[in-house]
Amino acid sequence: MQLTAIELPYADDALAPCLSGETLQYHYGKHYLGYVHKLAEAIAGTPYEDMNLTEIVCSATDEPFFNNAAQAWNHEFYFHCMTPEPKASADGTLAAAIARDFGSFETMCAEFRNRAAAQFGSGWTWLVLNDTSGLEIMTTDNAQTPLTSGLTPLLTCDVWEHAYYIDYRNDRGAYLGEFMKIIDWDFVAANYSAIGHSRAA
Ligand code: FE2
User: pLDDT tens, 20-70?
Assistant: First the structure.
């Protein structure tokens, strides 16, 4: 299987002013593509060469393989979590599940943002579906991902400094405020419904 990089799902300046074209150019073109290219080089001639990206993330224990594979996977997921045409909130069965597990959409968003703001160092903040079909918010350090814990990612925010430093310098809170405005709730809902989960609140 040939490891291929995804295209950015929108123009690199389409998320401005929340995220500038320069941020997306560096984030996608330098950071994400860097992980993909390093992984492609590393897996050549190894058993990982025949796996898809998710399989590599879930089976690689050696750090060079895992870190580059997980960072590639996390970034592909992150780029799809944002859209130039966002809805104001989640709807349908996802909205019902959020209300069931957090009380309200606004409470879930506030908790997500607070967890992301409080996260120490580099990593990722996630909304996931756990093994009892409940929604929860979690954080992972560096390249770590909920995939390796058997959890289903629904939404993520990259809180590595490279995600926001060009636009917001050290003000992660400002970045998070803008990120929350451009979440693709249809993508989050599709991740939720993709696993056949239909329990309503
Ligand atoms: Fe990143």
Answer: 999 999 999 999 999 999 999 999 999 999 999 999 999 998 888 999 999
Give residue 136 CA to ligand 1 midpoint distance, Å: 22
The conformational region for residue 120 under phi > 0 = left, psi -120 to 50 = alpha, else beta, is beta
The phi and psi torsions of 157 (rounded to 5 degrees) equal -125, 130
Distance from Cα 145 to the centre of ligand 1, integer Å = 13
- Locate the DSSP E strands across the chain: 123-129, 135-141, 152-158
In this predicted model, what pLDDT tens digit does every residue of 64-110 receive, in sequence order?
899 999 999 999 999 999 999 999 999 999 999 999 999 999 999 99
Residue 152 contacts by C-beta under 8 Å, 6 or more apart in sequence?
A: 128, 129, 146, 191, 195
> How far does residue 7's CA lie from ligand 1's centre (Å)?
15
- The answer, as to whether pTM is greater than 0.90, is yes
Q: How far is the CA of 27 from the centre of ligand 1 (A)?
A: 6
Amino acid in position 142? N
Other beta carbons less than 10 A from residue 169's beta carbon: 11
